[in-house]
Write a structure and sequence with these properties.
Nuclear Transport Factor 2, Chain: A; 2 domains; six-stranded mixed beta sheet; 6 helices
Length: 190
């Protein structure tokens, strides 16, 4: 008959074995779970929870700001599409609705600087008196930068397809959000 040795069980050692993934083969695993410091589980749970919450908040805020920026960029692109459609209908005044109706509007073109909405409209009417002179306008938007919540900067190329000879050039626009609507406050077209 073999003599059985009774071992003294050190619960801390067993819980360390349990945490390290080793099973203690005494049939007393449930004791390890009970005596495994509950605080380690709670701490790990809350650390994981806090990290998940932080990452989720970061993701949601990033998505919100990127989507807000892309919504504003789309509004600016829509403004230029609307401007093109008005021009191609022969509607110079409709085309000018995308500009700031102010004496502070600045337009820089081949003739120099023009100040004011009405003066800019008059110059367009003088330079493009009919639909033959106006032709068909198209824009190639190269870059839209939202500088702040109220200002944006656009770089692009314009093309006029006309029976009397095609024209093209580049433009830079400074847009400002006034009363929740984007308007062109400065246009440099050459």
């Amino acid at each position: 008959m073999e003599k059985k040795t009774i071992r003294k069980i050190d619960f801390l050692d067993m819980s360390n074995d349990y945490r390290k993934g080793r099973l203690v083969s005494l049939g007393l695993d449930w004791i390890n779970m009970i005596f495994n410091p509950l605080s380690a589980f709670v701490l790990t749970f809350f650390q994981t929870r806090v990290m998940r919450t932080f990452l989720l908040a970061f993701f949601l805020l990033s998505t919100y700001f990127l989507s807000a920026q892309s919504r504003e960029e789309q509004k600016i692109r829509d403004l230029l599409i609307s401007q093109t459609a008005s021009w191609n209908r022969g509607d110079v005044e409709g085309f000018m609705q995308t500009y700031w109706k102010s004496d502070s509007l600045s337009f820089i073109g081949k003739s120099g600087v023009t100040r004011g909405w009405q003066n800019t409209l008059n110059n367009y009417k003088k330079g493009y008196p009919d639909t033959t002179a106006m032709g068909k306008l198209s824009f190639d938007i190269l870059k839209v930068d939202q500088l702040s919540s109220k200002y944006a900067y656009v770089i692009g190329k314009w093309m006029l397809e006309r029976s009397i000879g095609n024209l093209s050039g580049h433009y830079t626009l400074l847009l400002r959000k006034i009363r929740r609507k984007w308007v062109i406050v400065s246009d440099h077209s050459s």
